[in-house]
Amino acid sequence: MQGITEITGMVLKAEPMNDYDKRVVFLTKERGKISAFARGARKPNSMLLAATNPFCFGIFKLYEGRTSYNVMEADVENYFEGLRGDYEGAFFGMYFLEVADYYTRENNDEKEMLKLLYQSLRALMHEGLCNVLVRYIFEMKAMVINGEFPGMPTEGKWEESTRYAVSYITASPIEKLYTFTVTPKVMAELKSIADDYRVRYVDHSFKSLEIVDHL
């Protein structure tokens, strides 16, 4: 693999490497999840300093070396600055990035997960939406996309509005996911369903979730 390639994607995480470099993990439209080195990206005058931070979404040019990708240029379309200034929203956002990192793989078709991640981060910045509701919608839709959501639980008594909400989350296009609010009773039932399914079907402990649960 050698040459220059262009990807559209979001930075899921960035880790320091050596004195001035970063290792960046992207979720991309073209190649699923990939990692790349950003040489000199930690230098104060680097053009890649801000563009290789988590949440950044845009078009990135990568050099494909024999064994790794290297970030050459970045044209960021959305930094999600609103999350950077919102303590609670930022932690919900970091949790979403961690979930996306868990679910996605290199060279898989991850377009739907990328779209879900992008729309969910936008929803966190929407003043009319509750972050907790955004979280439960995101968790359930992520399971749907990855074929792990079993549908409405058959046991227990549920509000009709809860049944409708779960059906809507399951069937709705991602662009129309975050278009409703719920009562406290329905919110509690969505939490019960999402929590139960996450414990049952997601074999992973998310570090950021521990913080989110205490917000």
Describe this structure in words.
This protein is an alpha+beta fold. It has 2 domains: about 5-80, Beta Barrel (OB fold (Dihydrolipoamide Acetyltransferase, E2P)), CATH 2.40.50.140; about 80-210, de novo design (two linked rop proteins), CATH 1.20.1440. Helices cover about 40% and strands about 20% of the residues. It is built from 7 helices and 5 strands. Strands 1-2-3-5-4 form a 5-stranded mixed β-barrel. α2 runs parallel beside α4. The longest helix is centred in the C-terminal third of the chain and has 18 residues, at about 185-200. The protein starts with a strand and ends with a helix. The mean pLDDT is about 95.
CATH class wording of the largest domain:
Mainly Alpha
Shape: elongated
Radius of gyration: 18 Å
Poorly predicted runs are none
- Which structural class is indicated by helix and strand composition? alpha+beta
What separation lies between the terminal Cα atoms?
Answer: 45 Å
Keywords for this structure?
single chain, 215 residues, alpha+beta, OB fold (Dihydrolipoamide Acetyltransferase, E2P), de novo design (two linked rop proteins), 5-stranded mixed barrel
Question: Concise description?
Answer:
This protein has 215 residues and is of the alpha+beta class. Helices cover 40% and strands 22% of the residues.
